[in-house]
C-alpha cells in the first residue's frame, strides 16, 4: 500500500526478512536449527559464556523469548546453561561441541544468503544500503 505516493520501505525489509528466514531455515533444518534460534547462535559464536540476560540485551529481545529459544537450543544440544558461579540466580550460556562442529556450515549458509541478496546489486549499492539501514537502526535505537 502506498502512503502519500511513496512505497513503504518496511514492505521490502519484511519480504527480505521472511525470504531470508525461509532460505536459512531450509538449509539448516538438517542440523535442527530453526529460524528463531539463528540470532542467538550468532551472538553466542561471537561471545560464548555470556549470561542469558546479557544475551537478551545484546539482541534487544525480551527475556521470555530468549528463554524459549535457549530451551530449544539446549534440547537440540547446541548450548548448555550453567549457573553463574558469582550470581546463583543467573545462568551463563555455553556452546557445546555440537554447535562448534556446525559453526562452519552455519556461517556458510548465512554467507550464501548474503551472496544471493547482493547478487543483483553492485558493491557500491551494497555498501550504501548497509549504511542506510545502519542509520535507520541507530535513529530508531535498534541494536
Detailed description of the structure:
The chain is mainly alpha-helical and 143 residues long. Helices cover 64% and strands 8% of the residues. The chain has seven helices and three strands, in the order H-H-E-H-H-E-E-H-H-H. It has helices at residues 9-28, 35-46, 52-59, 63-75, 97-101, 103-118, 123-139, and strands at 50-51, 79-83, 91-95. A three-stranded antiparallel β-sheet has the order 1-3-2. Strand 2 and strand 3 form a beta hairpin. The two termini are 28 Å apart.
Summarize the structure.
The protein is mostly helical and 143 residues long. The chain has helices at 9-28, 35-46, 52-59, 63-75, 97-101, 103-118, 123-139; strands spanning 50-51, 79-83, 91-95. Helix 1 (9-28) packs antiparallel against helix 6 (103-118) and helix 3 (52-59) crosses helix 4.
Q: In DSSP terms, counting alpha (H) and pi (I) runs of 4 or more, how many helices?
A: 7
The topology string of helices and strands comes to: HHEHHEEHHH
Distance between the amino and carboxyl termini:
28 Å
**How would you state the average pLDDT, rounded?**
91
Total number of β-strand segments? 3
Strand order of the largest sheet: 1-3-2
Low-pLDDT ranges: none
Name the shape in a single word.
globular
Radius of gyration from CA coordinates: 17 Å
Biggest sheet character: 3 strands, antiparallel
Q: What share of the residues lie within helices?
A: 55-70%
Oligomer: single chain
Query: Beta-strand level of the residues, as a percent range?
Result: 5-15%
Structural class: mainly alpha
